[in-house]
Design a protein that fits this description.
The chain is built from 10 helices and 2 strands, in the order ααβαααααβααα. The protein has 244 residues and is mainly α. It folds into 2 domains: 33 residues; 196 residues, Penicillin binding protein transpeptidase fold (Orthogonal Bundle). The longest helix is centred in the first third of the chain and has 32 residues. It is globular. It is a single-pass membrane protein. Pathway: Cell wall biogenesis; peptidoglycan biosynthesis. It comes from Candidatus Thermokryptus mobilis.
């Protein structure tokens, strides 16, 4: 009996390994295509559609893709300082944040702090689910490394800004800007940009125009970071991380 159980477990491990390799090959091909093509639908979008179906409700994807050149520099900078300040200097994973995340989560006895970089969020949104299990996080890291190897920082940021969830059925900063502020993402002011970036951690719970404590606190934090780092300038100059 024990021998049979061992064989069964080994078989399951082998099948899982083969499936994982196959999945990575397919994902690797998709990452290659992202250099020239925009993704039509993400895993997160598919997950939200399935969740809505199970609840018996209609779900419509509201997304308008725009090039990064048509996104307000205020918003670009607000997203970077709020979500991944070292975006231009890491290779997909911010190991300092990983260490701090582990320390904080161990102290609290639960997962209360993440360590996802912008690249890891792109990997998760495009190819994975919102599950927080350790195995999924490992796969997220591996995909993030491949994304960094194959795509430029500018392209990664452009994809992120166009696929990020910012409300019920709202994906990308252009759709969110029109929904919450009645204008294009290229026209957002500093405060509007900070408000949009403020709700990224909980887009289904908070509205950028809300005066709830969490939103107000995040807006002030983001604006103070922007001012302290003197990053309120125009555009992205190069791959070294300079923002102009």
């Amino acid at each position: 009996m024990r021998k049979g159980v061992k064989i069964l477990l080994l078989s399951l491990v082998f099948i899982s390994f083969v499936y994982l390799v196959y999945e990575f090959i397919e994902i690797d091909r998709e990452i290659d295509r992202l250099r020239f093509e925009n993704p039509k639908i993400t895993s997160l979008m598919e997950q939200r559609i399935e969740e809505a179906k199970r609840k018996g409700r209609n779900y419509k994807i509201n997304q308008i893709w725009v090039p990064i050149s048509r996104i307000s520099p205020y918003l670009i900078n607000a997203v970077i300082v709020s979500e991944d300040a070292s975006f231009f200097s890491h290779g997909g994973v911010d190991w300092y944040e990983v260490k701090e995340s582990i320390r904080r989560n161990l102290e609290r006895g639960r997962i209360s702090r993440g360590a996802s970089t912008i690249t890891m969020q792109v990997a998760k949104n495009l190819f994975l689910s919102t599950s927080r299990n350790p195995l999924r996080k490992l796969v997220e890291v591996l995909i993030a490394y491949r994304v960094e190897q194959k795509l430029s920082k500018r392209r990664i940021l452009e994809i992120y800004l166009n696929i990020i969830e910012l409300g019920d059925g709202i994906f990308g900063v252009e759709s969110a800007s029109r929904k919450y502020f009645g204008k294009s993402a290229s026209e957002l002011t500093l405060e509007e940009s900070a408000r949009l970036a403020a709700v990224i951690p909980s887009p289904l719970r908070y509205n950028p125009n809300s005066n709830k404590r969490f939103v107000t606190w995040r807006v002030n934090l983001i604006m103070n970071r922007l001012l302290a780092r003197e990053k309120i300038k125009l555009g992205i100059s190069n791959e070294s991380g300079a923002i102009e």
